[in-house]
């Protein structure tokens, strides 16, 4: 279906408005907005606020103190180094490691560090295109691949597959909202696509650039490698939703079959950034220094996938806040993100989810792409 609204223009307009108009306008509509924690910006719909306007999580951190900074673990890094060194030259069809590649700073950092430290490891980068990739993200990939000089493939499942997945997920949200349902199932399918590609191409190792936080909180692991028994399991559900309730037999076969197919070797799945445990600032600085990414402050609102505005609006109607907010509030508490900017962003999202300002045409387009209406997802623009 033809796209009628330019998502990048809308995102830039949204950002401009948040930076320049909203700081004044918010004073006039404050009575209609949820109250927010004065320390981390958390909405009262997410966490209870004290009389002083501080959320329960900030109070807990103030009471118990921050968890001690984990000491860097050289043994863990050495273990990872041995796995990487051991994989070099072991791929049966010309590649030893499949690198999941989004074009963002983490995946660029991962590739270049592999090239520097393990030149014998034959890399294949792969990007899974879910059909809703931001045009800015695609352009970033086109720009950075020649600089990395790496073999690369796109995996592009048929459109109806993703439409079916996202349509089902957004109408069957779990307690974690769109982040924990739509975004999470998207991430699981990306990993499954990499598992299948690696298995089919005789690649023994998959490298994924998730941060320590994403591995621990997102995947529930506390090691840099996903356990073998987990990797051998065939997938039967995603984000708590049964695949058989979403897909026909052909659709179910697109997910990871685990060790149910005797002809497939199960690749190892490794998260090197978990072992390296770097600060986000270090990674940003390094990719700029390497000349890989020019604009170190590219906005996630512009590079994220096109469904993000729809997910935000649906969350506000379902939960009262965006399910992406808890992660930002955590980063604010840890001093890794700036409160005012993100509070204004999420406040304006709350406001525009009700009024439809800027986002309504885009949201209607995205719903139409998924074959849904506002009623299907419980959205009502005032
Ligand atoms: Zn707080």
Keywords for this structure?
five-stranded parallel β-sheet; two-stranded antiparallel ribbon; binds zinc ion; alpha/beta; 19 helices; 382 residues; globular; Rossmann fold
Polypeptide structure, described:
By secondary structure, this protein is of the alpha/beta class. It folds into two domains: 7-49 and 299-377, no CATH class; 74-276, 3-Layer(aba) Sandwich (Rossmann fold), CATH 3.40.50.620. Helices cover 51% and strands 7% of the residues. It is built from 19 helices and seven strands. It has helices at residues 7-20, 22-29, 56-64, 74-87, 105-117, 135-148, 159-170, 177-200, 212-218, 228-232, 243-246, 249-252, 272-276, 280-289, 300-303, 308-319, 325-333, 339-355, 359-369, and strands at 97-100, 123-128, 151-155, 205-207, 237-238, 241-242, 268-270. The two termini are 27 Å apart. The model has no long low-confidence stretch (mean pLDDT 92). The structure holds zinc ion (ZN). The site of zinc ion has 8 residues, from α3. Zinc ion is lined by residues 37, 39-40, 42, 54-55, 57-58.
Beta-strand residue percentage: 5-15%
Strand order of the largest sheet: 3-2-1-4-7
Total beta strand runs: 7
Bound molecules: zinc ion
Q: How many angstroms does the end-to-end distance come to?
A: 27 Å
In the CATH hierarchy, the third-tier topology of the largest domain is known as Rossmann fold
> How many domain modules?
2
CATH class identity of the largest domain:
Alpha Beta
Task: Write the CATH architecture name of the largest domain.
Answer: 3-Layer(aba) Sandwich
Total helical elements: 19
- State the helical fraction: 40-55%
What are the low-pLDDT stretches, counting only 5+ consecutive residues below 50?
none
The CATH homologous superfamily of the largest domain: HUPs
Order of helices and strands: HHHHEHEHEHHEHHEEHHEHHHHHHH
Average residue-wise pLDDT: 92
Largest pleated sheet: 5 strands, parallel
Q: What is the overall shape?
A: globular
Coarse structural class? alpha/beta
Radius of gyration: 21 Å
């Amino acid at each position: 279906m033809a796209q009628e609204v330019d998502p990048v223009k809308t995102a830039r307009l949204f950002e401009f408005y948040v930076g320049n108009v909203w700081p004044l306008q918010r004073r006039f509509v404050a009575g209609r907005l949820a109250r927010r924690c004065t320390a981390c910006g958390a909405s009262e719909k997410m966490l209870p606020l004290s009389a002083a306007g501080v959320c329960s999580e900030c109070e807990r951190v103030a009471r118990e103190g921050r968890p001690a900074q984990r000491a860097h673990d050289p043994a863990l890094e050495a273990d990872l180094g041995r796995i990487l060194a051991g994989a070099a030259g072991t791929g049966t069809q010309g590649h030893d490691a499949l690198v999941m590649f989004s074009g963002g700073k983490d995946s660029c950092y991962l590739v270049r560090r592999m090239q520097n430290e393990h030149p014998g490891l034959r890399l294949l980068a792969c990007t899974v295109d879910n059909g809703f990739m931001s045009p800015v993200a695609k352009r970033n990939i086109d720009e950075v691949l020649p600089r990395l000089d790496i073999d690369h493939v796109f995996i592009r499942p048929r459109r109806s597959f993703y439409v079916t997945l996202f349509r089902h997920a957004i109408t069957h949200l779990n307690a974690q909202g769109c982040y924990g349902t739509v975004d999470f199932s998207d991430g699981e399918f990306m990993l499954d696509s990499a598992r299948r590609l690696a298995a089919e191409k005789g690649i023994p190792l998959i490298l994924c650039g998730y941060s320590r936080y994403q591995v621990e909180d997102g995947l529930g692991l506390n090691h840099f490698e996903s356990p073998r028994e987990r990797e051998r399991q065939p997938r039967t559900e995603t984000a708590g939703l049964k695949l058989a309730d979403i897909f026909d037999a052909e659709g179910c076969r697109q997910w990871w079959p685990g060790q149910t197919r005797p002809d497939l070797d199960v690749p190892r799945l490794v998260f090197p950034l978990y072992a390296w445990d770097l600060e986000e600032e270090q990674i940003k600085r390094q990719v700029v220094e390497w000349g890989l990414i020019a604009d170190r402050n590219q906005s996630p609102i512009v590079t994220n996938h096109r469904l993000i505005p729809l997910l935000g609006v649906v969350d506000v109607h379902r939960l009262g806040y965006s399910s992406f907010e808890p992660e930002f509030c955590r980063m604010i508490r840890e001093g890794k993100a700036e409160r005012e900017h993100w509070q204004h962003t999420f406040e304006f999202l709350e406001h525009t989810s009700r009024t439809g300002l800027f986002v309504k045409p885009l949201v209607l387009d995205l719903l139409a792409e998924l074959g849904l209406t506002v009623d299907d997802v419980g959205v009502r623009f005032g």
